[in-house]
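Reminder: ligand-aware prediction takes two inputs, not one.
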Amino acid sequence: MPDTFKRKIKVAIDGPAGAGKSTVAREIARRLGCSYLDTGAMYRAVTLKLIRERVALADLERIEAILMQTGLDLENGQRVFLDGEDVTLEIRQPAVSKLVSPVAAIPAVRSRMVALQREIASRSTSIVMDGRDIASRVMPDADYSFYLDATPEERARRRQKELMGQGLELSIDEVTAGIEERDRIDSARADSPLVITPGALVIDTTEFTFKEVVALLLDVIRAESGCAPDAATSI
Ligand code: CDP
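Here is what comes back for the chain with cytidine-5'-diphosphate:
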């Protein structure tokens, strides 16, 4: 039975690639009965569109025009639709992963995505969002802010396992190189880079299981919101 909060709550979960943010955020939202928004999926969908339209990333005018004509719909953490087409699986393909960080570094792309994300947050009763700039830019007024991290080796291992589950066989070296490159671009970009915001609770999840991380976040949220833990909290 999900919790019910007397007031609207906003939960921000940030961190580098492969730290487990999306799986944890989706589960937290389910358990709290909140909406969930995977902001990375939005950047991935835009990247897929630019790949399909064969747009050069230097062609900012064309990118802005395409952004205005692009329809994005996210079905509460389940499926992603690009102009009405279900692209949930396609946005996880290596070609998209390879290009998503350069695309996400383009200020016009970011301002459009941030506007959409804020609009979704304002329409939701309560929301859990995960990404890179949620606490720093999208929801600086979040009630709870978490930064999930893990060692690069563990993050690569988790991502390789996840990709394997989707039928994508990549060597650990390929996965590690991809994650390192994205972390480098995401942390170095001028427009809202990946940072640990003051006040965020930093959790190194290297030694924790998925269930332990979920329980930890739920305990913090419930303790501070005065919501009594239910039987489902225990792991
Ligand atoms: O692979 P992982 O699940 O860690 O990444 P993702 O959440 O799917 O995000 C893909 C990429 O989108 C990131 O590497 C960032 O370049 C970009 N992103 C961003 O810039 N800001 C966000 N709020 C979310 C994602």
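The first strand starts at residue 10 and ends at 14. The chain has a mean pLDDT of 91. We will return to this case in the review session.
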